[in-house]
Each structure stands twice: as structure tokens, then as C-alpha cells.
Amino acid sequence: MASPTQHSSTRLYVDAELGRGAEVMLDADRAHYLRHVLRLEAGATVALFNGRVGEWQARVTDLGKKRAVLTVETQARPQEDGPDLWLAFAPIKHGPIDLIAEKATELGVALLQPVTTQRTAVTRINIARLRANAIEAAQQCERLSVPIVRDAVTLDKLLAEWPHDRCLLLCAEAGSATPIADALQPHAQAPRGNRGAWAILVGPEGGFARAELDALHKLPFVTPVGLGPRILRADTAALAALACWQAILGDGQQRPPHRSFA
Ligand code: SAH
Question: Quick one: which atom of ligand 1 is closest to the CA of 230?
Fold first, then answer.
């Protein structure tokens, strides 16, 4: 059977500038990861991306206990901007919130916005951990960017500062709502790249309060959408809505790069 096109299987997100001949220094944790987890040696190739200038092949030129040095060689992929889709979600407990960060990254969100609502039970959110999850998922799924993870805000503040040209899909478990596919389909008439800015809002496990839903319904940029007759867990709802949006308006028609079979 034919094998997939070869490429560096190790991908690392770095903040450093990338360009031919640039030297990128990795800290002790990442040097340890390269040496002891991936068992790489000097001379191995690694793919690097910084979210700005695409993906570059780099060679490990020095791999010590305290640091690793990589020398950037050639560009493997030019930068592409992903779809302009945000996910606003009420914080939920440890496991599921990590899952949202990881899976939403795989599903291509540009920005993750934790939002506290009236019935949000979880108050302590570890933003650094969410960012780490997003980086790890971006490395694994071959994205060229890492989603921005914003600090948590209250729903009131989020809505007060909302950019009115960004459509907000409210995943509404109660009250009137259009099935999500029906709400998105008309926008698929617009040419790709010209479909505007979007966001999805998912409530906490306790659901939105009546007053919150009433207020949201009145806002001109909000479209309440339904995800079927079952009550989904918040993490399921977020991922289902993201997958629908990507299939209808996003990059669902593209194929993964580097995965063609000869
Ligand atoms: N405890 C609430 C349900 C909350 S589910 C109740 O029993 O009514 C958590 C969040 O997931 C909801 O606030 C909503 O944003 C989303 N959600 C769950 N099921 C949904 C559905 N069928 N349609 C749209 N959104 C849904």
C-alpha cells in the first residue's frame, strides 16, 4: 500500500521569528521532551510554526540537558488564515473544559472566550492550562496558528463590548431557536472568504437563566440556534455547533495537507 507523503512528524509551536537560517532556542522542558519523549538526536528535523509565517522545517543542531537549538531551513507551508470563528463558553469543570480547549482548537476556532453567566458554577479557571491545551492541540492537528485564549469575562461585559458586525450564534436549549443548519445555510451563498465574522455562545451545565435568554434574544447580532431535541452537555454542544459551522460556512470542504496517497 502507498504511504502518505513524508514530512516532519514533530511539530512545535514557538514564539520566535522564523526564516531561513534563524536559530531557535528551546527551554529545558522542551529539550527534555525532544530528547527523552521523542528520543530525537542532533540532526533530526522538526517542523516549527509561530502563527505568523507558516510552517518551517528546522534541524536540531544542539540538544543538551538545559536547552535545544534548532536551525531553520526551508518553509514547508505558507501562512493561511483560518476561519474567523470564536467560541464563547461558560466555564465547566476541569476535564470537560480541557476537552473544549483541545477539541475546539482541532475544529479551527480562532479565539476561546470563557464567559461567566448567572448559573456558572465554576469560578476558578486556569487560563494558562487552557492555553497549553490549545498549543498542544494545534501542534498535533497541523494548524498553522494557535487560538487566542482570553481571560474570562461576565456575560454582561461580553455583550456590552461585542463588535456588532460579528454574528453571535446563541446555542439555546430553551425558547425559540432556528435549527443551526437552517440558520447558517443562507450565508453559504456568499463567496468563501466573504462570509463575515462569527461566534458561538454555549451556556453552563445549569443552562442560561430566563433573563439572560430574554436579553440575548433582543440583541441585533444574536441568532438563537437549536442543536436538536436532546439536552447536550455544554462541551458536546460547543463541539457540535463548531462542527456544523465548519461544515456549512467554514473550511470543511478542504482536505488535510500532506495526506495525499500516491
Ligand atoms: N441544565 C440545562 C441544560 C444546559 S446544557 C437544562 O436542563 O435545561 C448546557 C448548554 O449547552 C446550554 O446552555 C446550551 O448553550 C447548550 N445546549 C445543550 N443542548 C442544546 C440544544 N439541544 N440546543 C441548543 N443548545 C443546547
Answer: 22
pLDDT computed for residue 86 by the predictor: 98
Q: Find cell 512545535 and name the residue.
A: 12
Nearest CA to ligand 1 atom 20: 173
Q: Which three cell numbers stand for residue 134?
A: 490549545
For cell 443552562, name the residue. Answer: 207
Q: Please state, in angstroms and as integers, the Cα–Cα distance from residue 258 to each residue in 3, 48, 68, 74, 77, following that order.
A: 11, 15, 27, 16, 10
Our answer on whether the CB atom of 202 is closer than 6 Å to any ligand 1 atom is yes
The grid coordinates listed for 164 are 456588532
Ligand 1 centroid to Cα of residue 171, in Å, is 7
Three-state DSSP state, 46? strand
3-state helix, strand, coil in the chain (%, to 5): 30, 25, 45
Q: How confident is the model at residue 232 (pLDDT cuts 50, 70, 90)?
A: very high
119 CA to centre of ligand 1 in angstroms? 12
Contact 24, 18 (CB under 8 A): yes
CA atoms within 13 A on the CB side of 170: 23
> 221: CA distance to ligand 1 center in Å?
20
The rounded distance, in Å, linking the Cα atoms of 32 and 66 is 8
CB-ligand 1 contact for 89 (6 Å cutoff): no
